[in-house]
Amino acid sequence: MTDSPLYNAETITIDSSDASIGMYVSRLDRPWLETPFVFQGFTVKDRTEIELLQSYCRTVYVDVRRSGLTRLQVKKLLGSSSLRSQSGQAKPRKKKSSGKWFRRLRNLLLRYGLLRERQAESEPGVDGYKVTSTMRGEALKAFAAYKALVLQHSEVIKFVERKGSLPEGVLKKAVQPFIESILRNPDAMAWTIFSRRDNGRGLGRAVATSAWCVMFGRHLGFDRDGLNDLAVGGLLLDIGLLRVPARILNIEGELTKQQHSILSEHVEFGLQMLERSGQFSKNIRDMVEHHHERADGTGYPQGLQGNKVPIYGRIAAIADCYDAMTTTNAYSPAYGAFDVARSLHEMRDKDFAAEVVEQFLCTVGMFPTASVVELNDGTIGLVLEQNRDNALRPKVMVLLNRDHSRLSKPKILEMRDLPVDATHARANWITKGHEHGAFGIDPKDYFNSGA
Asked: Which CATH architecture has domain 135-364?
């Protein structure tokens, strides 16, 4: 892209080095979501915003009529814009990466059986766990592992209702295929979870919460013992709800203070069940005991703050919160995954430590797998896979035209390979996420073809 000036009665294109306080920035040379600026259009208020503009953008677009600039300032900006245009400065071209061609070749070989996927037990390397399976290769395995764990968890619930204690050995064995699938390719399990959503009442969220815990532990490089604890603990966070009266669990809308006090007793009930079993690790007990604690001390049952909440409790807390917000329950509807990601971002240093939020969002993505998204050209699609290097540029399966009519054939966009420059003819980026099921799109309908 060259820096040719764009000037009508309203807009000037300037180099970010010429940005000053009082300018109204109406456009950037890249997608807004890939910058720290929340609002699409803002008045520059201080030096910090100027430095941010300069660190993220080479060119910005200034709306003259909405800016607090004098005629002399506008004339000066127009002059410097013109000089840059005549000098023919342009961004140096990036060397093309061979990564996309390698991925395409590997996927093609896998599809025709000319390359075998490694199925040995996954172990972390110096830079964490490697993705060793494609979405296509892992899809059915992920669904099988998920379904088996749902059924096993249901049997455990029946056992607890009869005996009042928990069969730890059964759970530890049941989570192994589940963990292995997540280690091979976490996107396949995320797709499964979002395509098999039921309502969030009672214990219905347990398997999904367990998955988020394991995915987070995978991202953080936990060893197998740690992942086992995260999987089992995630299943048991709300096991104490079995002893909470149904009249409390079935209340629609916000609870009174007294009702909330009764509901909060499920933490102590859960701990009692673990203690009667006498087999569960301290990490699992920490998850059950502390998954409602908050970084600022406003949680329960102990009101612990910051690092006083054990690490397994902090992982359980954010995973449980994320799953609750993305699931319809008695207290609220399911929110779009991107809206939930933004909400978690706003909870930094309040509900959750900033580093916990940042790392968790790196795990699930700003636009999680199987979420419905809208692109800058108005088309609609589903997120297929995360891009671990840039959470805002995942792989997307485009399903609807800009008029929201169905495409005759889904189009796959590997967004990591697209130009970052928003003015480029091939530039595509996500502008926003939509709630689960928006536009009649159900990820379950695309499970096999999409994977």
From this structure: Orthogonal Bundle (1.10)
